[in-house]
Amino acid sequence: MENCLYFNTKRSGYSEDSCGNTITISDLIEILSQYDGDLPIYFRNDNGYTYGSFTDYDTIVSKEEER
Questions:
Q1: Nearest CA-CA partner of 9 in 41, 37, 35
Q2: Exposed end of the chain (fewer CB within 10 Å): N or C?
Q3: 64 pLDDT tier (thresholds 50, 70, 90)
Q4: What per-residue string of b and e applies to 29-49 under the rule 16 or more CB within 10 Å gives b?
Q5: What is the 3-state secondary structure (H, E, C) of 7-45?
Q6: How far is it, in rounded angstroms, from Cα 6 to Cα 21?
Q7: Contact 48, 13 (CB under 8 A)
Q8: Is 62 helix (H, G, I), strand (E, B) or coil?
Q9: Considering only CA atoms, which of 3, 5, 7, 4 is closest in space to residue 43?
Q10: If you average pLDDT over residues 46-65, what whole number do you get?
Q11: pLDDT tens per residue, range 2-44
């Protein structure tokens, strides 16, 4: 049984345009629906060398002209 869910993250560039493909909100919902809703999520960086958390305060919606 899992006690947390990790997202392996990476630095891909200095802007959204240089990052390539990414998943959509629908994709993320589908992925997350496979797990217990109380499972905490952590970001795993640098092959587990550093970790990060994610809270509702970390969500930012950006309009196209703000980029």
A1: 41
A2: N
A3: low
A4: eeeeeeeeeeeeeeebeeeee
A5: EECCCCCCCHHHCCCCCCHHHHHHHHCCCCCCCCEEEEE
A6: 20
A7: no
A8: coil
A9: 7
A10: 86
A11: 799 999 988 888 988 888 899 999 999 999 999 999 999 999 9
Task: Provide the residue ranges of all domains of the chain, joining segments of one domain with +.
Answer: 5-66
Q: What tokens were used for 19?
A: 């990052």
d(CA 36, CA 45): 23
Residue corresponding to tokens 């997350």: 32
pLDDT for 42 equals 94
